[in-house]
Design brief:
The chain has helices spanning 4-7, 14-23, 28-42, 50-66, 72-84, 88-91, 98-113, 119-126, 130-146, 149-166; strands at residues 11-12, 47-48. It is mainly α and 167 residues long. It has 2 domains: 4-66, Helicase, Ruva Protein, domain 3 (Orthogonal Bundle), CATH 1.10.8; 72-166, DnaA protein, C-terminal DNA-binding domain (Chromosomal Replication Initiator Protein Dnaa, Chain: A, Orthogonal Bundle), CATH 1.10.1750.10. It has a two-stranded parallel sheet. α7 (98-113) crosses α9 and α8 (119-126) packs across α9. The longest helix has 18 residues, at 149-166.
Amino acid sequence: MRTFASYTESWFSEEALHLLAYHATGGIGQLEIAVRRCALVAGRGNVVDAMLAKHVSHDLLRQAHDAPVPSHTGAVLRAVCAEYGMSSDRLLSTDRRATVTQARQISMLLLREDAGLTVACIGRVLGRDHSTVLHGCKCIQTAIARGDEPIVAALAGVRQHLLDALA
């Protein structure tokens, strides 16, 4: 079995590396897959150029978009809606009020950290861009690190709703 280091024996142009890193929205695992695919297609000792990287990135994005959404995402969204007393339509809407935004961001964090979904998948579920998901997760993580009591309490409440749903 080849190690990751052996796949990097092919040379990657700087533009190819930037393209792969930019389009690997699913994290380091997706980036590793992209590098391996490029190296395999290019062949040992050959240069991976921007065209090849763009082609591989396009295929990975299409696969990520077509991937099925795990069934447990609905449970997380229902728990967030129950905690905040809102409908799923409102949670998924374009409403930018603070409570709706906060509920949406907590959904993003739980789907990413607890459910293990990629930012691309979370974006599809919530109708948002992957960069919005990253921003939302960061906002909640920052609030938790600051000790923001309302957010910490809401997060605990959502997790309790999830436990109650499993019981």
